[in-house]
Write a structure and sequence with these properties.
With 607 residues, the chain is an all-alpha fold. The protein has a domain at 247-395: Leucine-rich Repeat Variant. Helices cover 70% and strands 0% of the residues. It is built from 26 helices and no strands. The protein has helices at 5-11, 29-33, 49-52, 55-61, 76-89, 98-111, 116-123, 127-147, 154-162, 167-183, 186-210, 219-233, 237-244, 249-255, 262-276, 284-299, 305-311, 317-331, 337-360, 365-395, 399-410, 415-427, 435-451, 471-477, 480-578, 593-600. Helix 6 crosses helix 8 (127-147) and helix 11 (186-210) runs antiparallel to helix 12. The radius of gyration is 46 Å and the shape is flat. Keywords: Coiled coil. Belongs to the formin homology family. Diaphanous subfamily. It comes from Micrurus spixii (Amazon coral snake). One of its GO terms (molecular function) is small GTPase binding.
Length: 607
């Protein structure tokens, strides 16, 4: 496929050109904003990516990474040491050579986090003025350091992050770290350095790994605070360079693009947008796109789904603006027409096509500006595609050659059968001298509108309905009565389809309800079964206990019966032995009634 480089230069104009012959930093503010004072003196672009970004990103992206041809400064940690050496030893700047003053002056500019636009006028000052500026800065820095002696140093933050603190303690540490990163000079950030950045990224990675298992009440708050710390850390050249040198820093930012946490998603998207438009290293937008792709593969979703979800109704306007900023930042920096059309088409297929109308209804200037940028760049791409078509018409006018190219293009692919079907349909065109040209004219217009879609993207292939703008041709070529009948039939079929879909949905709901009822009944039966089994076990246990008690009672009854028999025998023996003769010698006296009563008393009642 063509790269579109030559056509791009003619159609898109200066807006698509690569920056050539420029210094290591970006153009001045006037040039970036498209003001008359910009470089080149030519007509400014209608839109500039930097101009449509938020003020926050303006400051962020004004920090550049120097190219290798620039004069390297001394190491960051040594630069802060040189300041302390001068102030600590009591040595005055009057005793220092001009060369050393210039070195300190450059260190001062770096520590003040000034962009190239503000640094250049200061570099043009006289050496005496520079000496005085360095002296004042040293004095101010010394006073500021004395006020902050009680605050935490970068090493203390690093040690605390490595200590494994959790939840509220970790959140408090991160909030304090963010304030320090924002309020301290660049030298403080340099001392925090790659070691501190890796601590933040390790914690962030751990939070992402734990999300699949469980999420604590502090996890999202901690994750958002880390993103805010990264935002403060990257607000200078050193921070950007250090972040880009990490293995998975951009990927972790891409994982933070989560519509469930819109405030965190806004900060993460702003960082990714700013990275996309960095001039160095080149093609940063492709690295960001690669991170979004890798994250989507892990989650098994479309790579632009989180961004499109952030644009749907129900989300905040700020999130919508940020998502559109990222979309523009991914598409616009590329010099390849095919790449831009591909990304724009993928976004449309992911659902952006159906959301644009809702976004236009929003009454917000920033949102409208981002939409305008997106659509006008799309129209420019569409114009460039049309320019390609004109080139094809001029350069390729041989029927056999064009047919052979098309055949080779679709051969042994899924498109081959469709191409054959198109040719077969051409054979069905009525062989009429007047009608045949009209058929081909209408087909030509339809194909042109399909392949040269007006917004610079592929059509939405998921839709069964495609809007053609061929009313003028239809008025001359087709009978209006047939059109009305076709529309009525189409409307009827659409109603039937809608009715069938509604009935299907109702049946699905009813089926789910019955499934739920069956599952509930099964659960109840299982519970009843468990209850019966437990009751059966209890009765069996009671039966065993009763049998044991019955056996014990039988033994006790037998024992008592035996004792009763023995007692009766003893009583009979006592009665017979105590009998004596009467005075007449014929009768014997009865034993005392009390003794007799004892012999006939019943045994004690059985328990």
């Amino acid at each position: 496929m063509e790269s579109g480089g030559s056509a791009s230069g003619s159609v898109r104009g200066a807006g698509r050109e690569k920056k050539k012959g420029k210094n290591t930093d970006e153009p001045s503010v006037a040039a970036v904003a498209g003001e008359p004072g910009g470089s080149g003196g030519g007509k400014p672009r209608k839109f500039n990516l930097k101009r449509v970004m938020a003020d926050e990103l303006e400051r962020f992206t004004s920090m550049r990474i120097k190219k290798e041809k620039e004069k390297p400064n001394t190491t960051y940690r040594n630069s802060s040491t040189s300041y302390s050496d001068i102030s600590g030893s009591g040595q005055t700047l009057q005793d220092i050579s001009d060369e050393d003053v210039l070195v300190l002056f450059e260190q001062m500019l770096v520590d003040m986090n000034l962009n190239e636009e503000k640094q250049q006028p200061l570099r043009e000052k006289d050496i005496n003025i520079k000496r005085e500026m360095v002296s004042q800065y040293l004095h101010t820095s010394k006073a500021g350091m004395s006020q902050k002696e009680s605050s935490k140093s970068p090493i203390m933050y690093i040690q605390e992050l490595k200590s494994g603190v959790k939840d509220a303690q970790l959140l408090g540490c991160l909030e304090s770290l963010r304030v320090s990163l924002n309020n301290n000079p660049v030298s403080w950030v340099q001392n925090f350095g790659a070691e501190g950045l890796n601590c933040l990224l390790d914690i962030l990675k751990g939070l992402h790994d734990e999300k699949d298992e469980f999420s604590g009440s502090y996890d999202y708050r901690i994750e958002h605070e880390i993103i805010r710390c990264l935002k403060a850390f990257m607000n200078n050249k050193f921070g950007i360079k250090t972040m880009l040198e990490t293995d998975d820093g951009i990927l972790l930012l891409a994982k933070a693009v989560d519509p469930k946490v819109p405030t965190m998603m806004i900060d993460a998207i702003k960082l990714l947008s700013a990275l996309c438009i960095l001039p160095q290293p080149v093609d940063m937008h492709e690295q960001v796109l690669g991170a979004l792709t890798e994250r989507a593969e892990m989650d098994e979703v479309e790579r632009f789904k989180p961004i499109v979800d952030g644009l749907k109704s129900g989300t905040s306007v700020a999130l919508k603006v940020a998502c559109l900023q990222l979309i523009n930042a991914l598409i616009i920096p590329s010099d390849e027409l095919d790449f831009r059309v591909h990304i724009r088409s993928e976004l449309m297929r992911s659902g952006l096509q159906h959301i644009l109308k809702e976004l236009h209804a929003q009454d917000n200037e920033e949102l409208k500006l981002q939409l305008q940028v997106f659509e006008e760049y799309g129209e420019e791409d569409s114009a460039e595609l049309r320019g390609r078509l004109e080139d094809i018409r001029i350069e390729m006018d041989d029927f056999n050659e064009i047919f052979q190219i098309l055949l080779n293009t679709v051969k042994d692919s899924k498109a081959e059968q469709h191409f054959l079907s198109i040719l077969q349909h051409f054979l069905l065109i009525r062989n009429d001298y007047e009608a045949r040209p009209q058929y081909f004219k209408l087909i030509d217009e339809c194909i042109s509108q399909i392949v040269l879609f007006r917004n610079g993207a592929d059509p939405d292939f998921k839709r069964k309905h495609f809007d053609f703008n061929v009313e003028a041709l239809i008025d001359n070529l087709i009978d209006q009565t047939k059109v009305a009948k076709s529309e009525a039939k189409t409307l009827e079929l659409e109603k039937k389809l809608e009715s069938e879909l509604t009935a299907r949905h109702e049946l699905q709901v009813e089926m789910k309800k019955k499934e739920s009822d069956f599952e509930e009944k099964i659960q109840n039966l299982l519970q009843e079964k468990e209850t019966v089994a437990a009751e059966k076990q209890r009765i069996t246990s009671e039966k065993q206990n009763l049998q044991i008690n019955s056996s014990l009672l039988s033994d006790e009854i037998a024992l008592l019966t035996k004792e009763l028999e023995d007692l009766k025998k003893k009583m009979e023996h006592v009665i017979s032995s105590t009998a004596f003769p009467s005075p007449t010698g014929t009768e014997s006296h009865q034993p005392p009634s009390s003794l007799y009563s004892q012999t006939v008393s019943p045994p004690p009642a059985l328990p």
